[in-house]
Structure of Thiamine-phosphate synthase:
Amino acid sequence: MINLDLYLITTEVPQMGRSHIDVARAGIAGGASVIQFREKGKDNQTIYEIACKIRELTRKAGIPFIVNDRVDIALAVDADGVHVGQKDMPAAAVSSLIGKVKIVGASVSSIEEAVRAEREGASYLGVGPIFPTPSKSDAGEPIGCEMLAQIRKSVSIPLVAIGGINLNNVEDVFKAGADGIAVISAVACAPDMEQAVKELLKKFKELKCSKNRKE
């Protein structure tokens, strides 16, 4: 079991002079519970070098480091897990390559995809996009909180809501059944990245505490 409260996916923001490393470092300082490295546009050597640096940061911080899609990179840097999309390698195949003790996440946007990913051995599901998002051009149409709630009822593994998550809608995804929130631009494009992480995490933890008190 891992803490999925605030799952930060790194990106580059050239117009603000921010690299994957900058985003990861700020996320860790702010209290992010998981860091995922996602990069599809660079050469393998560069991707490996960036992954090595983030692996070092996360290891020192004692938080899980997930590599998006690239099983080879994850193995090379001894990442804690791999996250795959619907067009990537199935979760079961990834698990067989990286080992049963590693984390395998899967992106889903429907009940059918969620049930299949759980059956294939996914450790958690990234559900979305919940809301419109500027961070991923291939994200697809928003599925909304209603679908998130339906998926919550269909599987037993943890769900991380992704896609357009910000302070204004954290409560909506939490009430729909999210066990954590995944963010990209809400942090990477914020004036103060570390503060953005702290505020999002504080909001999510308050919601969890409130629910626990009621139960």
The chain has nine helices and eight strands.
